[in-house]
Fold these 2 entries.
Entry 1:
Amino acid sequence: MLLEHAEPGLYTTFRRLFVCFHPLLQGFLLGCIRFAGFDGTFLKHKVGGISLTEVGCDENNGMFPIAWAAVEGENYNSWMRFMELLFKLFDVGSGHGWTFISNQQKGLLNALSILALDAEHRNCSRHIYQN
């Protein structure tokens, strides 16, 4: 778990929280295919923010939770930091052999194009239909 603050000092402002439990990391590496889906959703409470999630696919085509984060907004910087931490944990490298699916969010697509240049990217059919 990693907690980041906007400004160090006596009174700090919460900025980001990253969570990836070790058993989930090991479970994904040992029993899942190299496929992951990314999405973000609003946190509806007085503080606000966005929840970013990464979900994998196990060998039975079931959803496998991997990691999540609470961030200040769904933007390039938030997605970039989230993916940097994930890709380092999973040793994604240039992304060769990986497939990612997302909802076409611009910040997410930009971060993916920089961090996983060789990965395949697919768009969620539900979001394509809605747009």
Note: The domain at 2-130 is CATH 3.30.420 (Nucleotidyltransferase; domain 5).
Entry 2:
Amino acid sequence: MPFTPFHFGPALLFGVPLRRRLDFVTFLVANVIVDVRTTFVFFGILSGRLHGPLHTYLGATLLAGVLAGGVLICARLVPSVMDRIRSRPDSVGAVLLASVTGTWIHVTLDSVLYLDIQPFAPLSTNPLYGTISTGAIYAGCVFALGLGGVASLLMLRNWLSATN
């Protein structure tokens, strides 16, 4: 997507109700971290194809492993910081599930939109491209952001009322 924040819609929509099964903050980060390299290419810091190896399921899985490792290391080394962002992972499985599903959702959404993505690399085809219209994807992400935002506010309200 041309603007990574569109990915927050599906992340919130799925992340809030699944927060007991996956680490919520890790899931949010996983949904947008795939575009790190894309951003560097876009601004000319790196060269190459805009959607490169992280926009494949293999690359996204490897990135998910790095993200999960980073989250778990941070949870052990700086628990006070993790407490501040309300991300003390319950389990390794919750972090891994959040990392993999978040990065894969990103690859799937972008694969539908962009022909230059090769989600099943080393295969050079993109069978997902064009299966859903661009307008429908964007509208769905905006709708998901609205629903996910409401769900997030309700989650925050419940959390605040439970701590008082």
Note: Helices lie at 8-15, 24-33, 36-42, 57-77, 79-84, 92-113, 134-163.
